[in-house]
Amino acid sequence: MLTMVRALFIAALAVSLAACSFARETQPDHSATEQLLFSAAMDRVGAALALEIPKDSKVFVEDKYAEGTDSKYLVATIRDRVLRSGGMMAATRDGADLVLEPRIGASSIDRKTFLFGIPGFPIPIPLVGPLQFPELALFKRDRQQGVVKLAITSYDAKTGALHQSADPVFSFSQRTDWVALLFISWQNNDLVPEPYLQDWTGKGTFD
Q1: Is residue 49 part of a domain?
Q2: Helix, strand, coil in percent for the chain, rounding step 5
Q3: pLDDT given at position 28
Q4: For labelling alongside 28, which of 58, 101, 108, 124 has CA 20 to 30 A away?
Q5: CATH number of the domain within which 92 lies
Q6: Cα–Cα distance measured from residue 38 to residue 74, given in angstroms and rounded to the nearest whole number
Q7: 185: Cβ–Cβ under 8 A, 6 or more apart, which residues?
Q8: How many domains, the chain?
Q9: Mean pLDDT over all residues of the chain?
């Protein structure tokens, strides 16, 4: 056992000395992966909406209750869904036949990581500062899941009478990164269509 630990330590030290350091910088605050997790889940929740839109009716989408991360994208997705359902966009509430009020119950990302191995940790070095001991993953799964919950109420723009109260719709997106035996890594996701996957990851995916 001691021999194995010593061998792992030597391998980790070699990796840490040979590895290049890098800084994660995203502009804006969310990374591209995080934005794709949100937008993919929002596209799916929009496709799952069962809207009752009378053909050629003028619809105003009231967005003041649609607060959350990337809520503008979600509102635009709802507007697209209205048009696909045969409705027309009204520029103002006064010019509308129907008002749609979407409300967001969830719009976030959950992350769960499982590691079988040794997590990274700092080693204090006198006069130099801490040296980061690298993570040693015999097996690791790092899963990010985008979650969106959306409900919509529509009512007559003139009278305020209820037209439809749609049941909440849930949708999900995911990206999972895997590591095995320290150096073997791959990922799977449902964010990017196959023709674009190679450009995004640089190496494709395994499902």
Answers
A1: yes
A2: 25, 40, 35
A3: 59
A4: 101
A5: 3.40.50
A6: 9
A7: 177, 178, 179
A8: 1
A9: 83
